[in-house]
Amino acid sequence: MITYRRFFSSSLRYLGIALFVQCFGVSQNSFASNDSLAPESKENPIVCPTSNDSPQIVDNVVVGAARTNQYLPLLKDKRVALFSNHTGMVGDKHTLDIMLDTGIDVVAIFSPEHGFRGTADAGEHVSSSVDPVTGIPIASLYDGKRRGPSPELMDSIDIIVTDIQDVGLRYYTYYCTMLDLMNAAAEYGKEFMVLDRPNPNGMTVDGPILDMKYASGVGRLPIPIVYGLTLGELAQMINGEGWLKDDRNVKLTVIPCEGYTHTTRYRLPIAPSPNLRDMKAIYLYPSTCYFEGTPVSLGRGTEMPFLVYGHPDMKNRDFEFTPVSTPGAKNPPLKDNLCYGVDLRNISDEDAIAQGVNLAYVIDAYRDINMGDEFFTAFFEKLIGRGDIRGMIEDGKSADEIKATWADDVARFKEQRRPYLLYAE
């Protein structure tokens, strides 16, 4: 067991005001188990599991950030902006530490949704700040003020480096921030680099391709819900498909992982955001997130987010829970209300993976509560990406019947993405 006395080896002082949480060593299987990680607080910090193998290797995969001989020479004598958060770790050392310790000139840090620490609520605006020791600006790209960095900041850098753990879902917003940064880099003639990390849902492609009529902050590209690409592969596809503004291209470098394929069951060593706390939640995320567009709780404000669902009116159930205010879910839906519902924690990982996008849970709650069209909010369409799914559910279609309607989307996208794959399918 590896024990970390603090989250970063040496450069916590560079980040000022405790930008990152401490991690205490636990076994590698802690994150993969059914036991949810405790939410971060002063008394009870988020625990970050560690690997029992080499500190640079998880499940025999070497992440791009660990391949320093491949990218550090490319950053020499350049002014670097790093897009990352608490997941940008190589063993017990953050990529920022690696860069600073080797003399790389990091002049700015970009942070995504949930902030640089990864503890802010979903959708919560996070303010920018300046490190009081080094003066490095920490620019939040989720402050609600503007999409992308300021012109002044872009003039001060030569290259943007991305190192962040994604989960491969269209409504998981880290790729949206990467897209904004790619657009900025293309507009200002800057280079862009991705230190690639595995996609824990990279074995799956499923769900409808986004109808761009429903493009929003939780869906920015014409891709399926589960798109089966790493951020490095997606960046190549963004460039290659002309998805940047004004048909621009960015000078892109991807540092691939070693030992990873799209069949690898990569178990994340660090929770990527406050409410995706274990692998089962990540595997069920393609099926449970749609409750965000309904009155039903999906477990925010409990120890089981994305692993349960329920509502006070679902009374004929033998499972119950009560959402409360917690760090990472300060005002969860149905806060302080006793909810009756379904516990999904006994589903095996393989079954959760195999179902891909499964609307059976939403259909179950819809039929139980019997609210008609009032069951859905406009956010449901932004998540599912099409305007006709709600009507299919209201008309009594089954989950399998609805899934069949996007089979052509999945087949078409698999062919479309093939030129951009860096790893075997």
Can you summarize this structure?
The chain is α/β, with parallel strands linked by helices and 425 residues long.
What does it look like?
Helix content is 25%, strand content 13%. With 425 residues, the chain is α/β, with parallel strands linked by helices. The chain has helices at residues 12-15, 68-75, 95-101, 151-155, 174-188, 231-240, 279-288, 349-355, 360-369, 378-384, 389-394, 399-404, 407-417; strands spanning 57-58, 61-62, 79-84, 89-90, 93-94, 105-111, 129-130, 137-140, 159-163, 191-195, 251-255, 308-311, 319-321, 339-343. Helix 5 packs across helix 6 (231-240) and helix 7 runs parallel beside helix 8. Residues 1-55 and 114-126 have low confidence and may be disordered. The protein starts with 11 loop residues before the first helix and ends in an 8-residue tail after the last helix.
Structural class of the helix and strand makeup?
alpha/beta
Low-confidence runs (pLDDT<50, min 5 residues)? 1-55, 114-126
Radius of gyration: 21 Å
What general form does the structure show? globular
Approximately how much helix is present in the residues?
10-25%
Can you count the beta strands? 14
SS field, number of helical segments = 13
| Beta-strand share of residues | 5-15%
- Spell out the helices and strands N to C: HEEHEEEHEEEHEHEHEHEEEHHHHHH
Mean pLDDT: 84
End-to-end Cα distance, whole Å, is 33 Å
Main sheet: strands, sense, barrel? 7 strands, mixed
Strand order of the largest sheet: 7-8-6-3-9-10-11
Quaternary assembly: single chain
